[in-house]
Amino acid sequence: MSQPLNLPSFRPTVRPGSGDRFEVFDPLRRRWVTITPEEEVRQTFVNYLTAHLGYPAALMANEHSLTLNGTARRCDTVVFTQALRPLMIVEYKRPTVALTAKVFDQIARYNSVLGAPWLVVSNGLHHFCCRFNGSGYTFHDRIPLYSEL
After folding, report:
1. Which CATH number does 14-148 carry?
2. pLDDT tens, 106-116?
3. I need a surface site. Which of 45, 49, 79, 115 has the fewest CB within 10 A?
4. Does the pLDDT value for residue 134 go beyond 90?
5. What is the pTM assigned to this prediction?
C-alpha cells in the first residue's frame, strides 16, 4: 500500500505479481488482483465496512455486473440485504481523483438499474454517503453501521 488513507489502518494479503507489480487477495472476489491506487482504496474501504461497521462480507460483492443502456458495467462494491436486494452501492476512485458531480452522476446511473437506497463514493481520503428518498438524495455525515441501514 502506498499512500496513507483516511480509513483505519489495514494490512491486506499481498504477493508479487507479474513484472514489477504486486497483487492483493480480494476476499469478496476470492482471487488475486493487481494492486492499483483504486484497488488499494477498495480493499481498505471494504475492510472498514466489514471489520469496523459490521457489514457482512457474505452480503457484499466487488465488481458487481449490471447492464446500463445495453452496455455491460461494473459497480465497484454492492452491499445487499438479507433478501439479496441491493442496499448500498460504493464507488471508489484513486486518492488523486476529486469526488466531483461526475462521480456522483456515475453512481446515480448505476443506481437507476439497481435501486439501492444508499450510495457512497470514496477516494480513500474523502467519503460521501447519501440516502435516496425516492425524489432526491440526503447526505449523511458518516457511513452508517450495517445494523442502521
Report:
1. 3.90.1570.30
2. 898 898 899 99
3. 115
4. no
5. 0.93
